[in-house]
User: What shape does this take?
Amino acid sequence: MSEKLIDSGNNAAAMAVQLAAAEVIAAYPITPQTPLTEKLSELIAAGKMDAEYVAVESEHSALGVCIGAASAGVRAFTATSSNGLLYMSEQLHWAAGSRLPLVMCVVNRGIGAPWSVWNDHQDAMSQRDAGWIQIFAKDHQEIVDMTLKAFRLAELVHIPVMVNYDGYYLSHTYMPFELPDAQTVREFLPTYDYAHTLDPEKPESLNTVTLPDARNDINGVKQPGYMDIRHNLHQEMRLALQVWEEIDADFQQRFGRGGTPILDPYRCDDADFVVVAMGTLANQFHDVVDRLRDEGLKVGVLALQIYRPFPTAIIAEALQSVKAVLVYEKGLSYGNQGALYADLKSALYPYPNRPQLHNFIVGLGGRDIGTEDLYQTLKTACLQEALGTPEQNDTPQWIGLQL
Amino acid sequence: MPDSRFKVLTSASTSGPGDAGRTGSWRVERPIIDYSRCTPAKTGKASCHLCWLYCPDNVVSKTLEPKIDLEYCKGCGICAEECPVKAIEMVSEEQFVKGGEDE
Assistant: This one.
């Protein structure tokens, strides 16, 4: 039986991992992720979850343990935030290159220096090129559903998946959500079977020095070189978008929720101006959009649910004929622009009637994102389609600075 | 199991000589086995073979007189380190170079 609960986002994630029957959990506590790993250790200690909890001395080791577990054919899970994710960085690339189907929750938080324990997306964005699939949840229900779907995706495409959700906004707030029926989850998520599971009866060398060129192995079988392996990762990550849609459709059939695996639009149908944002920020825009709609402006907000692989064609098709696209994001590539903005601009470039694009940086290190600020900046951007020279238009505007 | 549309290319191979290319050219020191001290060679029994077990490139044969495939031995010296009777000596490759300037 499914169950309706009111609980925190971290507990929602832990209960999803319990339902997914992960067998190895290795995590190092870091704010605001800590209650998630605490909950998992409680569930294991109480015998409510048949898994091994491996206490580690760092995030680097946490992912190392998960890499080992997944290589041995075991469903593994870890979670982190902020500098913990950065400490894992080497292992993130390793897990992706090894094509291990891991799932990790990243409870998004600003990165030091200076120290910040509050929310933004700089941690996840800094790891966008690691070869992981990155999805972003907007509420507790999405944390549960996306985590379950993430295991299925990772195990079908053999690429690790990072489930992102906003620190505090979701991790520590209480919200109603439905926890799916365990038996139905088991049918949705069958046992994990890895093609290269470590087996003493069939010894293999995994990810040893791989030469630049393809070559024959000792059995005379042609083996790919490094570049071929990486090209395959890229190609199959692109193909994973389609699998993500198929998984969502299957999930919707079994559990009655879904339908927006890649883009989640709100009042976008006839919109001239569309806000693009990820995570809770997209939900916050619902009120702003409603208010501007009441004033007669044709505005909508498009939540991007999956950032890597970037749904280039899908999002470009959705936005190619609007007047302007307003990208609000909680992170940027220092010395350039917001990463999401740059990706969107690049996706829209081939379209002759591409819209104007504007970039807004908000909420770094937990700086309060005032709905009034969102309203004012969005309204201004809508009323003045061209703000200035192309260079001025292309320069990110920082919202809420207190300089 | 992965979806059939996915090839999932990884670097997974059966360990063996040449697994990492012609690594013999990397060698600066060559292992030389003194069969008068080597346990299986001396006793005529299939025993010890720690050099065979520890070789990371799988280039030592499991024979009464263990042989090392110099085409792929990269000269790491692990066999010499592990040999319990110190029958393996690492000798500089310079000793084997012919046609030096003086000749």
Remarks:
- Residues 320 and 352 of chain A are 9 Å apart (CA to CA).
- Chain A has a mean pLDDT of 95.
- The domain at 263-398 of chain A is CATH 3.40.50.920 (Rossmann fold).
